[in-house]
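Final report, Chapter 2: Outcomes

The project's central promise was a pipeline that accepts a single protein chain and returns its three-dimensional structure in a standardized token representation, suitable for archiving and comparison. That pipeline is now operational. To close this chapter, we reproduce one record exactly as it appears in the project archive, with the input sequence first and the structure output second.
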Amino acid sequence: MISKQVIFFVVLVLITAIPIVSAQEISIGEKAEQKSIKVVISSSDEIHVKHVIASLDSPKQIELIDGTITNITVSNEVGKEKQFGVIGDNDAVMIYPSQEDTIVEYDLEDVIFLKDNVHEWNFRYLETTSFIIPEEVDLIFVNERPVYLGEKKGIACHGCQMILEYSINEPKILENVKFENKEFLIEVRTYAEINQFNFDQSTKSISFVVNGKNQFVTTIIPLELLSKPYNVFLGDEKIFFHEYINNGTHVWLNIRPDNSGTVSIMGVTAISDEKPTIQDSSVASVNQDIIVYILLGIIVSVGFVVTMVIMRKKKPTVTSREIPEGKTESSDSLDI
């Protein structure tokens, strides 16, 4: 009876311990070498992920990107499906030995959230990852820093931990400005409402009213109209901004105001341009003082010379003198 109880206890311990041990062994298993990771994002925030794994000589695992994972497939380079094991709740995949690269693909959901027309993904995956951005997007924000894609399709993130943000079909506002008989085009890109756009010629500053909180506002300014360095204000308070994409003709300035209000963009060089004028006038004043002193010196010198000449003319001139008999005159004792 006792032996049966002991056997039952041992079997129970083994049954409860095996899953735990297996899970621990898998979780600390050797990771596979990943040659590339590509994340493709569609306009509707559908995401497809592709991992390319180098050849394996033993079973190894790869962690999958956090999110709701569906449609996992594992194949070789030519698309032939291979066996694999799933770890946890689609947390990782166990891949078996192969002399060729292994392709792991899956769809990812519930990671991108839309708020105030901004798509946001708090991403963390400590492997080099490439992102293909929707083709309608040419400007993204990585940890609130703007990245202009232009004709590029996406970005690469190394050891990646970032907040990715972007807007699709962001509205563009075009404003014509006249200055010194020239016309300049200023572009403002934002989902916020923009009113009362103005360019002040006297201060060389741009201002407009932003109606919207925490909205990205990007202003594209001709350098000939407003050159750097810049200061940006919301009301009377100086605010943080990003300056980027200076292509020699235009500069992009990006802000994200916490509140609605009047935004002013000022080129500091417009203020510093007045300084040389002040400095030049002071130099001219100094030069004028020197000239006055020189003229006074000349007048004093001429007056002194004239005075000496007049004084000499007033003294009596000795034309003859009587010499007593028996004395001779010495030239050294002659007084004039």
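Archive annotation: Residues 274-314 form the longest helix (41 residues).
This record, like all others produced under the grant, will remain available to the consortium after the project formally closes.
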